[in-house]
Amino acid sequence: MRKRIAAQLTAALVVLLVGTADAATTKKASAGPQTGTATFYSDKLQGHKLASGDTYDKDALTAAHRTLPFGTNVRVTDLKTDKSVVVRINDRGPHGKGQVIEVSRKAAEELGFVKEGKARVKVEVVSSDAK
Fold first, then answer.
1. What DSSP designation does 45 have?
2. What is the model's pTM?
3. Are the C-beta atoms of 67 and 23 separated by less than 8 Å?
């Protein structure tokens, strides 16, 4: 009986801690602008299912972010050219060191870094239609 109660309490504590950590991470990520590297999706991913359940469309203005809720709209500004675009978060990533966002090919074209493959950017939350 004691083992069962201890197991239930442990499980409840884990759920509580994970939920708190997730909320803290999301709050931290949306607290202010982020700077770092942006990359863009390979054309080979066209039509693949994303973490949100959406299908990747290289011609849509979308992006992946590690922690922002799906449906969040962010302004991505290239710090070298000052070009910017608003994209909707619908995937998780990027996973490389220093990378803050991975954008669709269309967004990379509008920002002007397709040839270079990456750009130093600022990411700012504009609005949230979070799912």
1. G
2. 0.75
3. no
